[in-house]
Amino acid sequence: MCCLDKQKKSPQKQPLQIRSNQQGQKKDIKVVLLGDCFVGKSSIASRFCTSQYQSQYELTVVAAYNSIDMVVKGQQLKIHLWDTAGEEKYKSLLSLYYRDANAAIIVYDITSTETFNSVQGWLKELDEKIQNNEMVLALVGNKCDCLESERKIPKQKASNFAKTHGMIFKETSAKTGEGIKQIFTQLIEQYAQDKL
Ligand SMILES: Nc1nc2c(ncn2[C@@H]2O[C@H](COP(=O)(O)OP(=O)(O)OP(=O)(O)O)[C@@H](O)[C@H]2O)c(=O)[nH]1
Ligand SMILES: [Mg+2]
Prior knowledge:
Low-confidence stretches: 1-17
CATH superfamily: P-loop containing nucleotide triphosphate hydrolases
Radius of gyration: 16 Å
Number of strands: 7
Distance between the termini: 16 Å
Order of helices and strands: EEHEEHEHHEHEH
Keywords: Nucleotide-binding
InterPro entries: Small_GTP-bd, Small_GTPase
Number of domains: 1
CATH architecture: 3-Layer(aba) Sandwich
Mean pLDDT: 88
GO molecular function: GTP binding; GTPase activity
Region (Disordered): 1-21
CATH class: Alpha Beta
Bound molecules: guanosine-5'-triphosphate, magnesium ion
CATH topology: Rossmann fold
């Protein structure tokens, strides 16, 4: 699944393969988190990799790395997770992190229209700069623990957007853990279905 049809633009480029690590046992998969400031990318990374959550905001500078082992369809995998900064001044550096990723998760905050509107820009950015045509994409609406009265983006609207762009979609809460493991599992399964 991929929303980015690069076949016509760059037919010479080869799709990325899942790489074996040195022991030849676990497969390495690179996943990148993208999205505006304050949407909860670092919180999602922390919840997924360490099962922890902190309500105090710490701005990410450029990018942060974490990894976690997973077993999908009996195959041992090492997920290399790059949590990027949402702040505009770091944007020009982010292609270093996503250009050879196997999968990207674009995150918005369900209580912020602005962050949802930015998703299109993140897709454009990927479309212009990625090297491969097999990057699996997911759209994640984070902070779904918030009150319905605080919600600005209807779930159906985001789901339709994701479908139109060939993206996996899930609402998550890094605060409660809802949907976090599921979105990564879905993403990896999607990427791995023809390769493991
Ligand atoms: N209610 C709620 N708050 C959350 C959730 N996830 C993150 N937050 C809060 O939102 C704020 C921003 O979270 P971060 O994870 O630092 O956001 P970020 O996207 O990494 O921000 P940058 O590093 O600046 O790009 C923090 O105060 C978090 O505690 C969530 O699922 N629910
Ligand atoms: Mg961050």
